[in-house]
Here is the input.
Amino acid sequence: MLLWAAAALLSVLASGGAQEDFQAAAKEYGVPESVLLGVSYLESRWDSHDWRPSVSGGYGPMHLVDAEAVPEAGQHHTGDPRGDDSRPMSITHPPLTMIRQDEQTLQLAARLTGLPVERLRQDRAANLRGGAALLADQQRRLGSPLSPDPLAWHEAIVRYASASFANEVFDVMRDGVERRTDDGSLVRLPATPVPALRVAPASDTECPATLECEWMPAAYKRFGKDDYGNHDRLRSKREIDYIVIHDTEGSYGGIPSLVKNPKYVSWHYTIRSVDGHVAQHVLTKDVAWHAGNWDVNTRSIGIEHEGYLAQGGTWYTEAMYRSSASLVRYLATRYDVPLDRAHIIGHDNVPGSNADSVPGMHDDPGPYWDWARFFAMMDAPIEGKTSGRSVIIKPDYDLHQPAFVGCVRKRPGKPCEPHGATTVWLHTEPRDDAPLVDDIGKRPNGASTFSVYDQSARASVGQRYALAGTSGDWTAIWYLGQKAWFRNPPSQPTAVRASGPLVTPIRDKVEVYGRAYPERSAYPRGVKFQEHAALPYTLHRGQYYSLGQTLRGSYLAASHFNPDKHVMVRGRLRYHQIQLGHRVMFVKADDVRVVS
Here is the structure.
């Protein structure tokens, strides 16, 4: 123990700067330095984020929350989230922006420290003192001494955030962390000999043992004469092909009133930003209405994350990323879902169910969701090969800061603040002043834009595309039936070579679909045939697209409140899922040739 303490002291003296601020704050308020470092790491990874608020209004390394900084809610589930032609559904009810009084930790930290709110919001040493004061206050409220033993602080951390958050803090302490923060400071948390702690999720929930999950059931209720909401219950387990990542476009405080409204929509889980707390709303065997495409709904699990896609200056906490990664890895193992970007997709990767629905499909979680970091947390890092006929998009999140506009809704032409992002812009030619490629489905009456909400000419981290050419620092991929060029200089690459199966059309004008529905002969009497509605894209000879999976057509006929009347139609028609543009889409297997 003495050797470990000496090593820790040497690391503090060697680092200076932020490390000394952590040490001073911990000493002033009697909090073990390892506890303060562990809590702060889960809140912010020790970064200041240029003193901009997080998606839940938290500032600085200790994520001190100010309700006034919570962004205005956006319109999230609009249009037809069910995406079923046989029973269209219109949603207009917006999310609510709310925050509980006990979550406003910035003001409490100001009272405990005597420091001005503004200083806590923009000074690192003050921010750390505020966090240390909050932890010490929780320990005193428990009637516990300010012990140097980190384990004695477990219950205080639980009260500070949640049980699963506290256990993650101890995991961080046990493993140890070292990183250079966004202001250049080197901070070290040496590996600390603490036990691995676990929680017991609520008995009704489907969560890994590392997460404290809450059961917050979605409404399942009739309304009107023939309709009901807000999900479909099934009698038996279903096959899962996708896990869909969403953001809420509103704060966590508004979630209970929305998910319990039978006239709204549903999703399976919500994850809170401030501490990574997880609430489950729909059993995974049941179909939630979240993706805007009925075929994807019937074969997916939807997870909402507290956040706003356009808030480039805001940030998601480490706690939320870790909870989400733990949950997705658990679900992927349970349902045998591959951990890749063909199966773990964003709402912005879900295809329109028909041509009319494509322009209104959603754009979350957007370009600021750090896919590479997310997959690394699931022990499935996004990696390429030394050679191959494909490329995987993979810029460095922190260094790659493409220009966007429209982060402020009322000023759509205003440039967004510089911020790390996961997408690359796609041009018609290998030069910066060339026009962006067009998406005739998303924007049928206009050219692609640099809006943060417009993914018409963007490719995202982890997505694999067929290589179409190179020219100097530029790389071309096949994208929506055309060659699309993006900057990929060797000094700061934005993509890596990859291998994997491709498909190429066997004739010109091959149609593309947003749903993998069965052939007409597969439908039993009494179930209406669902048309194979082609999307406004066609493929031509000589083009190549990455193959994500092959599946047979299926359709769930679920128009009754009584699940016993649901019918699952399974056909023989085979489809290939391809990465056509920013979204995944489907081609009939007989229309293309697979290139291994």
Notes: Residues 1-15 have pLDDT under 50 and may be disordered.
